[in-house]
C-alpha cells in the first residue's frame, strides 16, 4: 500500500501543536530535572512526557510505524525499513530549563531510509519549519527560498566553543580553528534543531557539531537538503541515521570551500 504522506503530515502538525500547548503550560509548574550521561546532560519530566505523547499517538494512529526517540524508545533499531519517526521531544533541554526559550521539537520521518517529512518547531515563537520531500520547506505558511552561498569570509558559523576546546571526538580541531579565524563570526545557541533552522533561513551559513545523535539531525537534514543545502559528517560522508556522528551543515558552495581549504578529506 502506498504511504499517505498528507495524512501523516496532518497528524504530525496536529500533535506538534498539542505538544506546544503542553510545554507552554509547563512554564507555570515546577519541572523535575535529572541528569543523564554527566552533570550537564539534563532531562526533565517534560522531555519524557512530550516523547510519550508522540509515541502514544503514533502507536494509535499508525501502528505499523517504527519510532526512535531520544528519551525512551527504539534505541535497539538496527535498520530503517518501513516508516520510522525519529523524534527529539525537546532539543535544547538546557535552554528549556535555564532560559525557557531557544529549544525546539525536532522530528524526521523516513521511509526505507529516505527522508520524507521534517519538522523543526520553535515552540516559544510558534514557528514551525516543515519540509516535505520534493515540495520545499515552509515556515508556518511562508515558503523558504533555497539556501544561498556566501564566501568563507562573510559566513556566520554555528559552533560550540566547548566542543572546539575539547576536540575530543575528532581529529579536525586544527582545521576548525583555522576556519573559525577566517569566518565573519561564530555563534552557539545550544539547540541543534534551532541551528539547522537558522542555516535553512540564512541566519547562519553553516553549523558544525562534533557529536550529534540521530534525533538531533533527522528532522533538520530533510529540511536542509530540500533547500539545496548539504548535511554530512566532518569527512564529507553521508550521515548514518542510526549512529551518533559529527555533523556539518552548509550551503553546497560553502561545503566545497570548507573541504578544499580547511578540512582535508
Ligand atoms: P538535547 O538538548 O536534546 O540533549 C547542544 O547541547 C545540542 O547538542 C543540543 O541540540 C543537544 O540536544 C545536543 N546534544 C547531543 N548530545 C548531547 C549531550 N550528551 N549533552 C548535551 N547535549 C547534547
Ligand atoms: Ca538530551
Ligand atoms: Ca537533541
Ligand atoms: Ca532532547
UniProtKB/TrEMBL annotation:
Q: Which Gene3D superfamilies match?
A: 3.40.190.80, Fructose-1,6-Bisphosphatase, subunit A, domain 1 (3.30.540.10)
| Record keyword Metal-binding present | yes
Its domain of life reads: Bacteria
One Pfam family, please name it: Inositol_P
EC nos = 3.1.3.25
Swiss-Prot/TrEMBL catalytic activity: a myo-inositol phosphate + H2O = myo-inositol + phosphate
Record-linked PROSITE patterns: IMP_1 (PS00629), IMP_2 (PS00630)
Q: Which top class of enzyme applies to this chain?
A: hydrolase
Q: Which UniProt keywords apply?
A: Hydrolase, Magnesium, Metal-binding
Q: What is this protein called?
A: inositol-phosphate phosphatase
Amino acid at each position: 500500500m502506498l504511504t499517505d504522506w498528507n495524512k501523516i503530515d496532518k497528524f504530525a502538525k496536529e500533535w506538534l501543536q498539542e505538544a506546544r500547548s503542553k510545554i507552554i503550560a509547563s512554564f507555570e509548574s515546577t519541572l523535575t530535572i535529572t541528569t543523564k550521561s554527566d552533570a550537564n546532560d539534563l532531562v526533565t519530566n517534560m522531555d519524557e512526557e512530550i516523547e510519550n505523547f508522540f509515541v502514544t499517538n503514533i502507536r494509535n494512529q499508525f501502528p505499523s510505524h517504527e519510532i526512535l526517540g531520544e528519551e525512551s524508545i527504539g534505541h535497539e533499531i538496527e535498520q530503517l525499513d518501513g516508516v520510522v519517526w525519529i523524534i527529539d521531544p525537546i532539543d535544547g533541554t538546557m535552554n528549556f530549563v535555564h532560559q525557557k526559550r531557544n529549544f525546539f521539537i525536532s522530528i524526521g520521518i523516513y521511509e526505507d531510509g529516505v527522508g520524507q517529512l521534517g519538522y523543526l518547531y520553535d515552540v516559544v515563537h510558534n514557528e514551525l519549519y516543515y519540509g516535505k520531500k520534493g515540495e520545499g520547506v515552509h515556515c508556518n505558511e511562508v515558503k523558504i527560498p533555497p539556501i544561498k552561498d556566501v564566501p568563507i569570509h562573510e559566513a556566520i558559523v554555528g559552533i560550540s566553543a566547548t566542543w572546539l576546546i575539547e576536540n575530543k571526538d575528532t581529529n579536525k580541531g586544527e582545521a576548525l580553528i583555522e576556519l573559525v579565524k577566517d569566518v565573519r563570526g561564530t555563534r552557539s545557541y545550544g539547540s541543534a534543531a534551532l541551528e539547522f533552522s537558522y542555516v535553512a533561513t540564512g541566519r547562519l551559513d553553516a553549523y558544525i557539531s562534533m557529536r550529534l545523535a540521530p534525533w538531533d539531525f533527522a528532522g533538520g537534514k530533510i529540511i536542509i537538503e530540500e533547500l539545496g543545502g548539504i548535511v554530512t559528517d566532518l569527512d564529507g560522508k553521508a550521515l548514518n541515521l542510526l549512529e551518533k556522528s559529527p555533523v556539518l551543515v552548509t550551503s553546497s558552495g560553502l561545503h566545497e570551500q570548507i573541504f578544499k581549504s580547511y578540512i582535508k578529506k
